[in-house]
Amino acid sequence: MRNKLRLLILLSVVSLLAACTGGGSDEPSTGQGQGAAPAPAAGSYPRNETLYISGTQWGPPNSWNPITDWQYATGTEGLVYENLFLFDPLKNEYKPWLAESGDWTSKNVYELKLRPNLTWSDGKPLTAADVVFTFELGKFETVPYHNLWSWLEKAEAVDPQTVRFTFSEPLYQQWGNHLYNRPIVPKHLWEGRSEKDVATGANEKPVGSGPYLYQTHSQDRMVWVKNDKWWGKTALNLDPKPRYIVDIVNSNNNAALGLVLQGGIDLSNNFLPGIATLVKGGYQVQTYFPDPPYMLSANTAWLVMNTTKKPMSDPAFRKALAYSIDVNKIVNGVYGQIVRPANPTGLLPNWDQFVDKSVVDQLGFRYDPAQAKKLLADAGYKNTGGDSFLEGPGGARIELDLIVPNGWTDWMESIRVISESARAVGIKVNTQFPEFQALVDARNKGSFDLLINNEKQVSNSPWEYYDYMFRLPVQDTQSVANFGRYENKKAWDLVQQLDKTPVDNVAGMKKVASQLQRIQLTDMPVIPLWYNGAWAQANTSVWTGWPSAKQGDSHYAPVTWRNWLELGGILTLAELKQAEAK
Amino acid sequence: MRRYFGRKLLIYALTFFVAVTVDWIIPRFMPGDPVQTMLARASLRPEANQALQAYYTDLFGLDVPVWQQYLNFWNALLHGDLGISIWQFPQPVTTVIMRAVPYTLALLVPAILLSWWAGNKFGAYAARRKWLDNTVLPLGYVLTATPYMWLGILLAWSLATVAGLFPVAGGYSFALEPSWSPAFAGSLLRHWFLPFASLFLVGFGGWAIGMRNLIIYELEADYSHYLESLGAPRRLVRRYAFRNALLPQLTGLALQLGVIVAGALVTEIVFSYPGLGYLVLQAINNQDFFLIQGAFLFIIIGVLLANFLVDVAYVLVDPRTRTGMRGGS
Fold first, then answer.
1. Is the pLDDT confidence value at A220 over 90?
2. Best residue in B35, B39, B44, B45 for a mutation probing chain A (most A CBs within 10 Å)
């Protein structure tokens, strides 16, 4: 009997294993299936030639299609597929990359010169035809930059190195964005792909022009290997040192922190609470600034108010709420000073030149509960209900829900501070933490009261932020901008006017920006709170030469997030040096 | 025999149908819209967003009435098609799951069987042995009451972060590629050990306690006393008691399977182990209907299959079941 039982256990193990591995053997495994992947190298990466990064990839890598720029494995754009220009948000300047130069030759013609001798990693030359082809892919309706073609008339290759873009209506600011955001794909491999393939294909085995090539991937990592034949070695005189880049998929906080402490990650772009102690604690961990705020600023966190609901429809109420919030308490208490309080305009530090100081001095807000109370009293908000909170001018009860996604711990703490601040001046604000998708739903449909949002990243133009604040028309579903459903025709006209201002006409841009700031600070459609950091923790035990604010170091954003390689991440990689062997 | 298994199979088929239906319904009760959530991660221009929203809704078949979605689901399922993952677009759900399943099985199967086997052995051995009963069994109580996740975090912190004996995360070293080499096998084993240990320890405690109590009960039974009074050796008596005590433990195993699977999912998340657990968590966070369905379908099949094996084991282990079947036919 006993033997039978043992046999049975053995049999069940075998059958279970057989049932499951048998089913898996026919799938085209690309890394994890035992033996299925022909490992090209010896199968292991030498530590001193490998750069480990994390904080960029939010799920297993499954697409290398640079067109779907929210799905591809991070690095697909930047490491494999390259852009015409880079944009350096620290200096506010374009750096020629695939392009050698580009100029507006007339009001609506932009002429682009490519570098000579560009090549794809399969050896074929990269020419103007590839650039034209890439932009023309946008003619497919399901390609994210389709709408470019509503103001771009045609793109043509004048000669193998020159592309001429003719616009029906030149939107200079948006075009400035396209110049560093469109990864160029090889015509000879993409020609003939169907719309479905272009818009949703996984594009396995990507062939690009960049400094790295696909090596392998599995559920918890993405590995890139250096492209020894990269054109940039001679043309740009750049030579990234890491032979392999292993991008570790984000998992949970304790695993991420553990890896940083063990020296298993060279660059972590995760938000790690308490980084100050790590920097000062002798862990060989370095941040961009050695002191607060430690990090560069990446985006603005806004308090979005639903202006279609009472009392948020009242500008006086919105202003009073702005005066009531103690942002410094969030910066110091919640974040330990790794973020900065925002300017009243909400414009990121790199757009400082567009902030009209006189408008801000006259209309800007600051933390001042007494002023908040005064504004509320002047606008007719009184305490008539007998509790400690104010009622609206008609005696309507005010009780607002402020929401952030569940699990975003720093934001959850922050809105507790905001709720306290608001309650201190008599506005009853409750905190709630719905799941992310429920929050997105409420946000897009406009059924929320208050929420925090930081979706607009640093970019080439403050136009992006004004588009985010004032975009019209308001639709049933607001999925990317103007979540507060604020309607101001004049402001929207100004935003469009800004878009049509040439990027080198800084004075003209300032003039429009100043008018927009006047409207913004008078009407307060959204309240800027703080600047979220471009989280970057670098470990210097294997790789040195990380960018920092120190003199003599390079000054780039040491960030490898999606769409950040072209904002300086790739230059960061090129600057790395192997640490001296100890 | 045939009738017994026929009836069992019918019950299993019915359970499968209901479980899969529930598995289909539950994700759809979640607030929000998966395509909207997916596109929320893309910073698109508003015009592009609208076009893509419509395109993906159609692609995932979410634009037809709910009852039709349900029928389409069964139709596809019977053709072995679980759909395309929303979160891991454009990978098919089967590919995604099959990549994760070997890791989960490698944790679950040894953890379940070894903890059951070792726990029963140890419990039987410890029963009525004073010093063991007083020292080690209280530890068993602590272990079995420990949540999987908490023990996992404790092990990760003590043995990995502080002592540095084991890696903190992952399925194998981040410096390796899969190959038939001792280095890779060793790395797999090192990464496997801690998650396995946390599952094993919790299970072990539970089975040991259960067995110890059952043995004591059996040793107090009349047949034991009778045997003893006949002068049978202590070893023989304990062996009879052990066999009788094994049956409830077998039933317990069948009942515990679901709990253990859930525990394994949580444990995988703690150790960032690339199995189903991490997938399920992310699938729920991303409202990935198809991946949730697929992952749970796999779990349902696994648990039903294991239960069936326990049923078979019952027939082999317990002569009364066999007699019962013969009498019935």
1. no
2. B45
Maximum pairwise Cα distance, chain B: 90
User: How many CB pairs below 8 Å do chains A and B form together?
Assistant: 238
- Cβ(A426)–Cβ(A374) under 8 Å? no
**Cα–Cα distance list, B107 to A14, A307, B100, B189, B261 (Å):** 15, 52, 11, 11, 10
Phi and psi, residue A205, nearest 5°: 55, 65
Identify any residues that bridge with A526 across adjacent strands, giving them in sequence order: A304
Neighbour tally for A298: CB within 10 Å? 23
The answer to whether the CB of A34 falls within 8 A of the CB of B188 is no
Contact A563, A181 (CB under 8 A): yes
| Cβ within 8 Å, pair B243-A264 | no
Report how far residue A317's alpha carbon sits from residue A323's, in angstroms, rounded to the nearest whole number. 10
Q: How far apart are CA A432 and CA A397, in angstroms?
A: 19
Q: Is B310 helix (H, G, I), strand (E, B) or coil?
A: helix
**Contact yes or no for A438 and B44 at CB 8 A:** no
At A27-50, the pLDDT tens digits run 333 333 333 333 344 578 999 999
Interface mutation target, options B150, B177, B289, B299, chain A, most CBs of A under 10 Å: B177
Model pLDDT, residue A581: 60
Residue type, A272: L
Query: Mean pLDDT highest for which of A142-146, A520-524, B71-75?
Result: A520-524
To the nearest 10°, the Cα dihedral for B86, B91, B96, B98?
Answer: 140
Q: What is the pLDDT of residues B172-230, one digit of tens each?
A: 888 888 888 888 888 899 999 999 999 999 889 889 888 988 988 888 889 889 998 99
Q: Are A551 and A509 in contact (CB under 8 A)?
A: no
Residues 453-512 of chain A whose Cβ lies under 8 A from any Cβ of chain B: 455-457, 471, 475, 477, 479-481
* Contact residues for A409 (Cβ-Cβ < 8 A; gap 6+): A273
pTM of the entire predicted model: 0.85
Nearest chain A residue to B308, by CA: A12
Sequence-separated (6 or more) residues with CB below 8 Å from residue A400 = A312, A422, A427, A428, A429, A430, A449, A450
CB A325 within 8 A of CB A527: yes
| Helix (H/G/I), strand (E/B), else coil: A32 | coil
> What's the confidence (pLDDT) of residue A5?
46
Neighbouring CB atoms inside 10 A of A126's CB total 22
**From A27, A41, A435, residue closest to B95, measured CB to CB:** A27
Tokens representing B247 are: 């049956």
Q: Are A192 and A201 a contacting pair, CB within 8 Å?
A: no
pLDDT in tens, A471-493: 999 988 888 899 999 999 999 99
Rounded distance between C-alpha atoms, residue A55 and residue A268, angstroms:
6
Encoded tokens for A229: 């034949």
Establish if A216 touches chain B: CB-CB under 8 angstroms. Answer: yes
- List the end-to-end C-alpha distance of chain A, in Å, as a whole number: 62
Separation between Cα atoms, residue B115 and residue A391, nearest integer Å: 63
Question: Which residues of chain B make contact with A455, given a CB cutoff of 8 A?
Answer: 43
Residue B278 vs residue B16, higher pLDDT? B16
- Mention every residue, 6+ apart, whose C-beta is less than 8 A from residue A141: A195, B51, B55
Measured between CA atoms, how close is A310 to chain B, in angstroms?
24
Identify the band that residue B327 occupies on the pLDDT scale cut at 50, 70 and 90.
low
ipTM, 2 dp: 0.81
The per-residue DSSP string of B210-277 comes to HHHHHHHHHHTSHHHHHHHHTT--HHHHHHHHHHHHHHHHHHHHHHHHHHHHHHHHHHHHHTT-TTHH
- Give the model confidence (pLDDT) of A297-316 as tens digits: 999 999 999 999 989 999 99
Chain B residues within an 8 Å CB radius of A60: 88, 96
A128 or B309, greater pLDDT: A128
